[in-house]
């Protein structure tokens, strides 16, 4: 197996850059920061968790609707990187702005968080689509998995720095408040994300594209409509998207709401942050392992393994009542969250026409983002109705089972 090329490494490195956002803003520091601000404002734990779930749902709705349209336009020569740059800039700038919003304005914090989520998710649509430009079909599983693995490793560096500042501020070792320490973490995230995206800007270019033509927006809508009308010709592709819609919903919801869930269980902020750090460390080698095992057992079989583990996670979560239980749950998640995401991305990339990569990754995005709406809403509604966050997480088992059944009907990429 030859070494990774400059283009492959530059593409992979964006996972290193963006994963700092995923762990610090989406998963760890911001949810705890927001929960503390909401609690101080008199909002109950169940309601603040629900509001976070509703916000995540709203944050993804607009982008989910625009994904295929923007992707179709971005298939024209030279457009892919322009769209990537816009959403990347939105994400980095709004992440930095989180540090300048007063904690008493917890509603404004959620609005700014919405912008960070749209920026990150929007940039990922075009980043994922660049996979077809930087490597061959035979190497996609390995390159995609390597990206997630490197992302987990890279994210631990700004995470450790941020958590160290927060813990030292809590102990009084350094003369800053916990609030200011969290704001410093937001700035670190924005700087890290921006700095390590430079290799992608320099070395990754759109190789597969459609030649520009007059009225690109109008013609993009025509191509999009043509794809929808010819959906039967892409049956395997859209069957996979339907399966992905359900199982990735559960994956994303567990990732984004894990700290809020842990807080409701009474687990301390310090314990939660340590667990999340350990999860990142364990997830890195497992993401790479999934890629290597997929070359021996196929990507589809490894997706089965990941979904099955998540079903166990959902069932086990219902019985959580201690920090040890949360540790066990987190380690189970760590074994599969990177692998299932990486192989889903490469599996899909093998199914699509390369010159229409942005258009089809737009559909990949819309299925993933609508799933991101349904999952948090399901958890939020169930948590409010039952008054128990554990019931909300347990309800996600249904999504994994449905996704597993549909995936079993999807052929391998070379048979589609």
TrEMBL record:
One of its GO terms (molecular function) is transmembrane transporter activity. Gene3D superfamilies: MFS general substrate transporter like domains. CDD domains: MFS_YxiO_like. The chain crosses the membrane at residues 12-34, 54-76, 83-101, 107-127, 148-168, 180-201, 236-261, 267-290, 302-320, 326-348, 360-381, 393-410. The keyword Transit peptide does not apply. Residues 236-416 form the Major facilitator superfamily (MFS) profile domain. InterPro entries: Atg22-like, ATG22/LtaA_families, MFS_dom, MFS_trans_sf. One of its GO terms (cellular component) is plasma membrane. This is MFS transporter. The lineage of its organism: Bacteria, Bacillati, Bacillota, Bacilli, Bacillales.
């Amino acid at each position: 197996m030859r070494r990774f090329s400059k283009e492959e490494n530059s593409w992979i490195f964006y996972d290193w850059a963006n994963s700092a956002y995923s762990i610090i803003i989406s998963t760890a520091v911001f949810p705890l920061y927001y929960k503390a601000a909401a609690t101080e404002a008199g909002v109950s734990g169940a309601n603040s968790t629900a509001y976070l779930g509703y916000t995540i749902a709203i944050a993804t709705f607009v982008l989910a609707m625009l994904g295929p349209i923007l992707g179709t336009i971005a298939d024209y020569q030279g457009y892919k990187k322009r769209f990537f740059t816009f959403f990347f800039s939105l994400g980095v700038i709004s992440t930095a702005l989180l540090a300048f919003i007063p904690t008493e304005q917890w509603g404004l914090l959620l609005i700014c968080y919405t912008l960070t989520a749209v920026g990150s998710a929007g940039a990922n649509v075009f980043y994922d689509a660049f996979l077809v430009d930087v490597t061959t079909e035979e190497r996609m599983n390995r390159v995609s998995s390597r990206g997630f693995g490197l992302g987990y490793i890279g994210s631990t560096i700004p995470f450790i720095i941020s958590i160290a500042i927060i813990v030292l501020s809590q102990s009084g070792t350094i003369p800053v408040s916990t609030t200011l320490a969290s704001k410093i973490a937001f700035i670190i995230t924005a700087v890290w994300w921006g700095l390590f995206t430079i290799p992608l800007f320099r070395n990754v270019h759109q190789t597969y594209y459609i030649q520009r033509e007059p009225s690109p927006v109008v013609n993009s809508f025509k191509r999009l409509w043509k794809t929808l009308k010819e959906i039967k010709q892409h049956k395997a592709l859209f069957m996979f998207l339907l399966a992905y819609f359900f199982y990735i919903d559960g994956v994303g919801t567990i990732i984004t709401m894990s700290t809020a869930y842990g807080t409701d269980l009474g687990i301390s902020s310090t314990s939660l942050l340590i667990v999340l750090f350990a999860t990142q460390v364990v997830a890195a080698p497992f993401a790479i392992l999934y890629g290597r095992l997929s070359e021996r057992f196929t990507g589809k079989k490894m997706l089965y393994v990941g979904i099955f583990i998540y079903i166990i996670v959902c069932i086990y979560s219902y019985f959580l009542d201690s920090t040890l239980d949360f540790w066990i749950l987190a380690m189970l998640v760590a074994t599969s969250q990177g692998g299932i995401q990486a192989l889903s991305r490469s599996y899909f990339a093998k199914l699509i026409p390369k010159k229409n990569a942005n258009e089809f990754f737009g559909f990949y995005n819309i299925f993933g983002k609508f799933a991101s709406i349904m999952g948090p809403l399901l958890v939020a509604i169930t948590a409010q109705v039952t008054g128990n966050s554990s019931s909300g997480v347990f309800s996600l088992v249904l999504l994994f089972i449905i996704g597993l059944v549909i995936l079993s009907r999807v052929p391998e990429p070379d048979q589609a």
